[in-house]
Specification:
heterodimer, A: mainly alpha, MetI-like fold, two-stranded antiparallel sheet, 13 helices, 2% strand, globular, disordered N terminus, B: mainly alpha, 2 domains, 0% strand, Sugar ABC transporter permease (chain A), MetI-like (chain A), membrane (chain A), transmembrane (chain A)
Chain lengths: 290, 268
């Protein structure tokens, strides 16, 4: 029997959603629309009143902040999705065998992902520390660098350092999702392919990958969406610096609104951000609906 | 063999930083600030953990975190369970659109929502209150809980609820006497996930609360990453302490983990 058919008192069903719908409207939809609306006003966080300025804020952010911020966001999102995906996939494949203590290993590997985002930042802030950091210590001992490097203080290395920290925090989730997917690949398919003379690599391409297509799509899309709006790691590690080299949309909107008090420009930047993000979200909902 | 090497290399990347956190938290201050750093400490100390207990501000952040994350979890599970029941067992126009709107809202940028939340809470004099934090946390726990609970309710056979109806039970008692008790493990797991998400929040508590109502994540940032030299070993000790409840939570949730990830965030 199809679930949910026989209780179909639709009106009562809808009434049940009302508490959540009202709350949702008040704390999610209204704030979203309200924030997007500030983009056409000249408005301050700390002073009352606002004046309509049309598209002036958009003109301003498109002339200044938007492009460098977009570039930083794309670099962070791209590298911050690709690196944990490769590591997470490799680990999932390695753990998808009858290895001793696999369940415990899988659980232990989740640690970087479950801990609070600020702790991730603290750990890597300390590892990347210019004066006493572990990374500089190891590289100097190995003779790979002559003097300690300020990884988070140089525009050339700061973004990559952030990506390393974010990769550390994201790959466990990807591993768990792909491992769950791998366990649904029927053993017989592999056996049949092996009998036909397919080696490990060919079986990976022709049996494993096609079977995982759906879950890979979901994992990659969600990672892209989350990274596109990520805040915690970047804000704690660099605050968007040095010289704006790691200022992504999340950091730029936050700083413009809560440090610069300029809600109009924060709203304009946020609206453009939301527009780009919604493309990803629409694709994701389409995938999730299937 | 390649599998073992893969696990080993990724293991170094995954657990190296954890080891370093632990070592730094256990090393006397004088030894920590040497270069190059020692990979294992000469002497071990618990002084940094003792420092945390002596800091009244940290205890306040801890209390705030416990209160706010718990109340957020309770409120969200309470409200979401009715909605999830509706999504799972009823069919009506607009149901799907509502479901996917709630799902998609998990992806609305927090920094953007925060602008208006700040203005509204400020207008109502609610800045720096537990209520402001709880309501703002609900923006991300509500979608999570609705979708996760729907996943749990989907596994409860209609026949069970039908039978109660035939016996003359009203909708209210079907929900409160049958559905919710039967789903208790699911409710607890969902609540725990919501608690963890609230516990880990940074941006809302950073912005909507001052020092006396702030939770641990922004509290630690403000305490240790201020203008003065950070006390790294103390911060590493604090990091372990703030991570502990979350790690315990996940050990309990192991069984629900994949179901939670898939049904809560991905599909119903």
């Amino acid at each position: 029997m199809k679930q949910g058919r026989s209780l179909s008192n639709g009106t009562f069903g809808f009434l049940l959603t009302l508490p959540a719908v009202v709350l949702f409207g008040a704390i999610v939809l209204y704030p979203l629309i309200g924030s997007l609306t500030t983009s056409v006003f000249e408005q301050s966080l700390v002073a009352p009143g606002r004046a309509f300025v049309g598209l002036e804020n958009f003109r301003h952010v498109l002339a200044y902040d938007f492009w460098p911020v977009l570039q930083n966001t794309l670099v962070f999102t791209g590298a911050g999705t690709l690196a944990p995906f490769v590591i997470g996939f490799a680990l999932a494949l390695a753990l998808n065998s009858k290895m001793k203590g696999r369940a415990i290993l899988r659980g232990a590997f989740l640690f970087p992902w479950v801990i609070p985002g600020v702790v991730v930042s603290f750990a890597w802030l300390w590892i990347f520390n210019a004066n006493y950091g572990l990374l500089n210590g190891i590289l100097v001992r190995l003779g790979l660098i002559d003097a300690p490097v300020s990884w988070l203080g140089e525009p050339g290395t700061a973004m990559m350092a952030i990506v390393v920290a974010k990769t550390w925090a994201s790959f466990p989730w990807i591993m768990v999702m792909l491992l769950a997917g791998l366990q649904t690949v029927p053993e017989v398919l592999h056996e049949a392919a092996a009998i036909d003379g397919a080696g490990t690599v060919r079986r990976f391409w022709h049996v494993t990958l096609p079977h995982l297509r759906g879950i890979i799509g979901v994992v990659v899309l969600l990672e892209l969406i989350w990274n596109f709006q990520h805040f915690d790691t970047i804000y704690v590690l660099t605050g968007g610096g040095p010289a704006g080299a790691t200022t992504t949309f999340a950091v730029a909107v936050y700083e413009t609104a809560f440090k610069g008090f300029d809600l109009g420009q924060a709203g304009a930047l946020g609206a453009l951000w939301m527009l780009l993000l919604s493309v990803l979200v629409v694709v994701y909902v389409k995938v999730a609906e299937r | 063999m390649t599998k073992r090497i893969t696990v080993f290399i990724i293991g170094v990347f995954a657990f190296g930083p954890v080891y370093w956190l632990l070592v730094t938290a256990l090393t006397p201050t004088a030894e920590v600030f040497t270069f190059p750093p020692r990979l294992w400490p000469k002497t071990v100390t618990l002084e940094h953990f003792a420092n945390l207990a002596d800091n009244p501000a940290l205890l306040r952040y801890l209390t705030n975190s416990v209160i706010v994350a718990s109340l957020t979890a309770l409120l969200t599970v309470l409200i979401s369970s009715y909605t999830a029941y509706s999504f799972s067992k009823f069919r009506y126009r607009g149901r799907k659109s509502l479901m996917y709107l709630i799902l998609a809202s998990q992806m609305f940028p927090q920094a953007l929502l925060l602008i208006t939340l700040y203005l509204v809470f400020s207008a109502f004099g609610m800045l720096n209150s537990y209520l402001a934090l709880i309501l703002s946390f609900t923006t991300f726990t509500l979608p999570l809980c609705v979708w996760m609970l729907k996943g749990f309710f989907d596994t409860i056979p209609d026949e069970l609820l039908e039978a109660a109806k035939v016996d003359g039970a009203g909708q209210g008692s079907i929900i409160h006497r049958i559905l919710l008790p039967v789903s208790l493990p699911g409710l607890v797991a969902t609540g725990l996930f919501a608690f963890i998400r609230g516990w880990n929040d940074f941006i809302f508590a950073l912005t909507l609360a001052g020092p006396d109502k702030q939770t641990l994540p922004p509290g630690l940032v403000n305490t240790y990453l201020g203008e003065f030299q950070a006390a790294w070993p103390d911060l590493m000790a604090a990091s372990l302490v703030v991570s502990l409840p979350v790690v315990i939570g996940f050990v309990i949730l192991q069984r629900y983990l994949v179901a939670g990830l898939v049904s809560g965030a991905v599909k119903g």
